[in-house]
Amino acid sequence: MKDRVELLSSARAGDVTDVLCDAFHDYPVMRYVIGACDQYDARLHRLIHFFVMNRMLRDEPVIGTMDDGNVSGVAMVTPHGPRATVSELLDQREALWKMLGTGARMRYEGLGEIWSGFDVGAPNLHLGMIGVRTSHAGRGLGRILLDAVHTMSARDPVSTGVTLTTEDPDNVSLYQHFGYRIVGTADINGEFETWGFFRPDRTDAG
C-alpha cells in the first residue's frame, strides 16, 4: 500500500535523515548555518541526523509516508511542555558543533532566539521539519503529512493547534491555504526571511 502514514521508530533514523537531506539540501537555513565549505553534504547530513535523533531519542513523534516499505516523506513533531534531557544527545550536540564550528553554532542559536519570539502563548504541537523526497514531489505527500499532524493536534487534549516556521517564500501562501496564519516574521542578516505560523485547531481559537 502506497503513501500510508506510519509512526517511525529509531530503526528508521537513517532513512529519515536521507529524506530530509534530500528535501532540505538547498534550504536557506541549512546553507546559512553550515556556511560556505568544501564538505557541505557531509556537514548537512551530520546536522540533520542530529535533528532526527533529537526527536527520536526523546520519543517525540516522527511520522512518514511509506512507498512499498520505503520512507518517502517525513514530518517531525515536538509536543508541548518541557522536553526530556537525554545525556546521549548532549554528547552528540557537542560533537556536532565541534565539526561545524563556532560560527555555525552562533548562527543556529541566533535563529533559535528569533524563532522563540514567534511563541503563540498557548500549548501546541510544533512541526519542526516536513519534507518529501524529490523523486516523490507532486504526489501530495506534504498534504498527507500535514493532515496527519493536524489530526494529532486535534486529538491532543491540551494542544490548541500547530506551529511551524518556513524560510521559503513559496510556502507562505501554501500554509495560509491550509489554515495557518502568520504570527511573526524576521529578516536574517539580509540573506533570507523567516516566517512563524500558527494553525488553531478550531476556527474560533486565537
Query: What is the total number of structural domains?
Result: 1
Give the tally of β-strands: 7
DSSP helix fraction? 40-55%
Order of helices and strands: EHHHEEHHEHEHEE
Describe the global form. globular
Class derived from helix and strand content? alpha+beta
Question: CATH fold name, please?
Answer: Aminopeptidase
Total of DSSP H or I helical runs spanning 4+ residues: 7
CATH architecture: 3-Layer(aba) Sandwich
Major sheet details = 7 strands, mixed
* Rg, Cα atoms, Å: 16 Å
Distance between the termini: 38 Å
Provide the CATH top-level class: Alpha Beta
Low-confidence stretches: none
Would you kindly provide a written description of the structure presented here, covering whatever features stand out?
This protein has a single domain (4-200), classed as Aminopeptidase, CATH 3.40.630.30. The protein has seven helices and seven strands, in the order E-H-H-H-E-E-H-H-E-H-E-H-E-E. It has helices spanning 13-23, 28-34, 40-56, 87-100, 102-116, 141-155, 169-177, and strands at residues 4-7, 62-67, 70-78, 125-132, 161-166, 181-188, 192-200. A seven-stranded mixed sheet has the order 1-2-3-4-5-7-6, with helices on both faces. The chain is globular, with a radius of gyration of 16 Å. The model has no long low-confidence stretch (mean pLDDT 95).
Question: What is the gist of this entry?
Answer:
The chain has 206 residues and is an alpha+beta fold.
Structure characteristics:
206 residues, alpha+beta, 7-stranded mixed sheet, 24% strand
Fold topology:
Layout: E1 4-7, H1 13-23, H2 28-34, H3 40-56, E2 62-67, E3 70-78, H4 87-100, H5 102-116, E4 125-132, H6 141-155, E5 161-166, H7 169-177, E6 181-188, E7 192-200
Parallel strand pairs: 4-5
Antiparallel strand pairs: 1-2, 2-3, 3-4, 5-7, 6-7
Helix pairs in contact: 1-3, 3-4
